[in-house]
Amino acid sequence: METRSVLFLGWESDIGDSHSDPESGRGCCCLSLKNGSDVEAGPTNQDDDERVCKSGEFFCDDGHCVSVLFLCDGTDHCSDGSDERSCPNCTSGFRCAASGWCLSQQQLCDGQSDCEDARDEDPLLCASQTTPCAASELQCRDGRCIHHSYKCDNTNDCSDGSDEEDCDVNECLLNNGGCPSVCVCFHCECPNNTRQRGDGHCEEMNPCLEADVCDQLCSYSEDHLSCRCQEDYEEDHQEDHQEGTAAGACRAKGDAAQLFFADLEGVHFADITDFVPKTLQSSHGRRHMTVLSSNNTVFLAQPGSTSIYRLLFDGVRHEAQLLLKAAGPVHGLAVDWTRGLLLWSSADSGSLHLSVIDGSVQRVLWTGLDSPRAVAVHPERGVIFWAECGKNPKIQRSTLDGQNRTTLVNTLIHKPVALSLDLPRDLLYWADQGLRRISRVNLEGHYRKTVVESNGFLDRPFGLALFERFVYWSDEASGSICRANKHHGRHFEVLLKDITSPGSVVIAHSALQPNRNSGLTTCAVDALTLNISCSENGFPPVSRTLPASSLSDSTFAALLALTMVLIVLLLGLCLWWCREELRPLTSNDHSLTLKESRDPLLRDANIDLNLCPTKETPVRLHLEADWRSSTDGQTISPTPPSLLLLAAPL
User: Fold this and answer.
1) Given its phi and psi angles, is residue 558 left (phi above 0), alpha (psi -120 to 50 degrees) or beta?
2) In sequence order, which residues have a C-beta less than 8 Å from that of residue 192 and are 6 or more positions away?
3) Residue-number span of the structural domain to which 357 is assigned
4) Per-position b or e across 262-292, b if 16+ CB within 10 A of its CB
5) Shortest CA distance to 32 belongs to which of 43, 19, 46?
6) 96 within some domain
7) Which among 114-118, 230-234, 532-536 has the top mean pLDDT?
8) Which ranges in 395-474 belong to alpha helices (H)?
9) Same domain, yes or no, for 396 and 527?
10) What is the pLDDT of residue 386?
11) Looking at the 3D structure of the chain, how many domains does it have?
12) Bridge partners for 336 per DSSP
C-alpha cells in the first residue's frame, strides 16, 4: 500500500487511512495528498471494489467517504458534490436551482461557476454583494475583488470589464492618487519593510506577526525568530511536529481546561480533551458568560435582562445566585481577576458598567456609546475593550479609570458581537456577525488580519474564546461550537453540534488568569466608590487625573433629593437664627406718675436697672407689688422698696 501524507482536521499523520477520533468519536476528514498538488478525499484503506465508510462518515456518489460533519456545510467535499444535495437548510442563503447544491459565501461571485447554469456568477447577483476588498485588491462594479496587478493588463478580469477602464489616466498625477505614501500608476504602495493597512496607510512590518508561528512570546533578531512560552505553559513539541514548525506551540501546565457554553437549555461544560458535554445547570436563555477561575465561579446574564447571576463549578451541583441588578439590560460580561472587578455592557442604554466582584458597589464607566455589545479587559495593561454595533460600528478601548479612549477598528467592520484577548501576544480577536469572519489586531489597532472566514459554521457567531493554539467560537446558525488555529484558521474542527441556540463560550484554566504583577500599569481601586486611578509604568499612556464618577439615573435622583432636604433644613436654621438675633430687647424701666416725674431723685437718677449689679430674689416681686398697691398717687415714698432692694450690693 502506498504511504501518503494525510492531513486531518487538527493533526497530520503519515498514514494512508481515514480516521475518527478514538476518544470523542468525531469523524475526521482526511485529504490524501498525491505528488504534492493533487487532492482527493476518500478512504485509502479500502479496495476499489469494497467502498464501505466507517461510522460517522458519509458515502459519496463517487465512492469516497467524508465526515458527516461536512454534510450540507456549503462546501463540496465529495468530488461530485453529493454531500451538498437535498439539504434541508442552506445557511449561506444560495442554492443552485438545478442540482440543489448549497453554496458558501466564498463560492458566490468568485469568478468560477459552481452551479450548472452559472447562477452563482450572475451579474445582478454579484452587484448586490458588498464584501469589502483587501487593501491589495480592486473592486469591480459587479462586486468582485481582483488583485491590483490585474488592472489595465489588457485582460478583462472583471466580468463587466471595469478593470480595463480609464487605463490612459494616471491617477498618481492628481494629489498623489490619494495615497499617504507612494503611488504607482493607479494604486498605493508602501516602502520596503512596511506593509499597507486597511486604511491605505503604511505601517512597519512585524516579523513575529507576519510569520505567525509563535503561540506566545516571540523575539526577532538577525533574520531569526525565537519562540518562548510563559511560565504557566510548556513547549508542545507534538503540536510543533503537526504544524511543520521547529518550535512555537505552547501547552498549559496542570489539569485540562474546561470549556463552558450556554444555550436555551442551560449551562454546560466539557473537558477540552474529549469534549463530552455535561450540564452544570438547567435554565432558560442565560447566554452571556464570563468566568473567574480562582474561585470556580461563572457569571451569567440573560439577554435583555438586568440580572447578573453567579454559579459555582466545584464538582457539586449548585443553583445560580443573584449577584446584582444592573441599571440596564446586560449584553456582554468580562472579569478583571487581579482587581476583583466585574464589567458589562448595555446596548440599550449605550453604556459600560463595572462593579466589585461581590456586586455590592457598581458605577457607570462610559455612556453615550453606540449599542455596545461585547466587552473584554486586559488586567495587566489596565485597559478595557468594547465593540459597538450601531450605525458606525467600531472597536474601542480606554483605561480602567475612564481615560485615553481610542478607536482601534472602524473600517471593514459590520457587526462585532464577541471579543477575546490573546494576552501573551497582546492581540485582540473579534467575531463579526455581519462579515462572517474572525479577525484580530494588536492593542494599538495595527497588524490587522482575518483569521477565519465563514465555511458554513461561522454564519452567525455569538461567543469567542482563545486558548493555547486555537480560537473557539459558537455559531447560532449551525448550532455548533467550533475551533481553528488562531494564526491562520487552518485545522478547522466542529467540536459540538445540534446545540439549541448556543450563546457565549468561555474557557476556564488557571493559566488564562495568572496572578502576577507585570509591572506595566498600576490601577488603584477605591472599593467604596469604585473610583479608579491608574499610573503608567510603560504601556499604555495613562492619565493620572481621576475622573468624576458617573452616576446612574436612580442614584442621581436620590442624591438630588437628599441635597434638597439639606438645603431646606439649612434655610430653616438661618431664619431661626436671624429671628433670635433681631428680636427687640425688653425694657425694665418703670413709667412714672406726674408727681414722680417732679422728684429730682427719680428724675435725675437715670439708673439703668439692667446694668446694676443686683441679686434678684422673689422678695423683690412681693415688695414691689405691696408698694404699688399702697400708693394712691398722693403720697410717695422717696425711694420705693423695690429700688432699695435692686440697688443693694451683692
Assistant:
1) alpha
2) none
3) 254-548
4) bbeebbbbbebeebebeebbebebbbbbbbb
5) 43
6) no
7) 230-234
8) none
9) yes
10) 97
11) 3
12) 341
